[in-house]
């Protein structure tokens, strides 16, 4: 399909937005096609004007438009701007739905939604009854929800709704996207107002908050209008806010967890007309118009979540902004007037930035997506048409987690509990905590714990790791208005807890929390992070734990939980060897015992070099009790011993000279005759197939000594089926006869090298051709020896030796070995292994 491209390069006034110029082309495209791509730069009006212009389209036939926004702040703001275009407030023709908040009515035709709202609606009504168009806005961010929504919508279009339209739009899109979607593209290159981009002369050195604060001060002196500055996170925003104290402007933060009233202060003009500086995370990259902003200061960093499947942990990673994000950020300056964008890096660095951020589906925790797919009826992600398919290893990690939460059965289908988890707008872990708390009559505590796990820590640094202390602080704050923590954070936590309580149908609690009850709820959300204290030894101090998932974890020094026998860990860093615990609660050992099962354990102890066989009462990697295992199952013995050999190497086995030469002969033939199907007996191949060839010999082995005594030659010989043993002797004999009558042993080497025939020079007198193996194809490598057995010549060309080098050797050796024959003519002299006297 040839993309439709309508390019507009003019600068427009606020009354005529650039998007208006391409609306006729977009209408035609949507009339003819069910899936259309729209690219329009920041400030073009695609989010805040376009949906209104499509309400009267015949193909819409009075149905709704749903527009997906990736962030709550943007969803509210876009809905407000669209409603303002109709002279209304949100909740009329234009409404919105975000997590725990909805402003819609029976009149609503345009509904702006975010997070999993669209997915929830699709799960409940796959036909999207009453919806004629779905708009996926800011698609360049490639959020997990957007990719999932697009995949589900394409399936709905193909199977249920051939009249449903989907519009994918953003300011910066992958140029290959239209072809990948087989969809036409409508493009606008106009801006509402021009933006001048300014770079630094050289890349700066220093903390980003210092650099941004300095640039904001300069911008306030040099330029007109309000300033929007981008920083990677809340910590940097607070630091920059402190450094801007005293400037002649209102300095306001903007980030997702900010209370709604403070978000509105940042988005709306100052009521008394004072200049404004908005310090924002990347949340302001998208469809937000912050009134009055004419200057953007881009710190050049962003903070994103990175999921580590090896540990099952998600951590925040700070990195350089990508070029598409920098374009989005600069565009914020040209929304309402000509503007300027300060980029705090050099112009030569700009082309070195990544072109675009990677799709979230390739890097994120896929547990929520995997559960959605199971409920949709597509446990195999390959059944859907993805832009980027979710990586199979991450899907398997997600399935393992969801099975641990009782959300999936062994076939990957959603269980009753899995379907219930999807009723909660949160990660399946937290949802499982909430359902379990409610079932056990602990709904109020579950709501408090869930809210604390989702929000920032309300207690100051150094307050210890015990989550129970946070629950107590929240309840004190709820009861008397003072909890000993950050009031703003406690307010957000209480608001979220209230919303969870409403969903669960329970009231608030103000009593002192039971630490073990808190730990049980945390363990329900994070079963692989149940932990047992490690014994205090010379190498391990107090406060070190082993997690059920096998990872180590350590409490901060002096932490009050260091004496606990068991913990349920909620938050820790993603270190591979031993993570640092940030948030945990004590765990009742009886709860662990109730989950535990007896398992046979046969393992190799590297230190003692022996098999350890015992029954263990286990929860994952945690061993609560042991008892001896007297009869070792054969399969477990073989697995353990094979694992030991793979870990420590084949040197645990003793290769007799005969066994070593058998391997070398077979390996030589495998290289010399690649079409004859000789088995691979290289080190790697033997390690890969240990169970097959060595397993039958391991019946009584329990130690290094036992392994060293094993006779390997019979096991090797069993690898050859008839007639290969006879062919081995014919093609790669162990000995060759030489003219003196001696049978001399050949030395084969692993690989394609010829074997070595080490023989005394006098035993070959009269022999014209170099001896061969491999049916005459491979000359041996002759190591010609002196009477004393030392090599005097190495050659594969015996004829050349007799004609040339022999006479140099003769000159050197006949004085040293006068009793041995050194004839003038080696061709005619009788070969001998004796001296002159004995040889006659």
UniProtKB/TrEMBL annotation:
Keyword presence, ATP-binding: yes
Name of the protein this chain belongs to: ATP-dependent helicase HrpB
Species of origin: Deinococcus malanensis
Pfam families named in the record: CON_HrpB, DEAD, Helicase_C, HrpB_C
One MF annotation (Gene Ontology) recorded for this entry: helicase activity
InterPro entries hit by this protein: CON_HrpB (IPR056329), DEAD/DEAH_box_helicase_dom (IPR011545), Helicase-assoc_dom (IPR007502), Helicase_ATP-bd (IPR014001), Helicase_C-like (IPR001650), HrpB (IPR010225), HrpB_DEXH (IPR049614), P-loop_NTPase (IPR027417)
Superkingdom to which the source organism belongs: Bacteria
Residues in Helicase ATP-binding domain copies: 27-176
Keyword Zinc-finger listed: no
Keyword set, alphabetical order: ATP-binding, Helicase, Hydrolase, Nucleotide-binding
